[in-house]
Amino acid sequence: MKGFVDKDTCIGCGLCPSLCPEIFEMDDDGKAVAKNVEIPEDIVDSAKEAEESCPVEAITVE
Fold it and tell me: What angle do CA 24, 15, 37 make, to 5 degrees?
């Protein structure tokens, strides 16, 4: 399972790295980016919470 951020949709609110910093971080352009790593089982819930909480639905966890 990995996280993905649609940078065209992202508004750079910073919510996803605050909910799941192991997977999401803010990029130099002020928008979120997902680290290119497999999501460990123990933080899948946090990654899913970030996906569900994104105000513009820019995050996909699959």
Answer: 10
CATH of region 3-61, choose from 3.30.420.40, 3.40.50.150, 3.30.70.20, 3.10.450.70: 3.30.70.20
Q: Is residue 22 packed enough to be buried (19+ CB in 10 Å), middle (13-18) or exposed (0-12)?
A: middle
For residue 35, give both structure tokens.
Answer: 């680290």
Give tens-digit pLDDT for 3-38.
999 999 999 999 999 999 999 999 999 999 999 999
Q: List residues bridging with 59 in a β-sheet.
A: 5
**Dihedral Cα 36, 42, 43, 46, nearest 10 deg:** 160
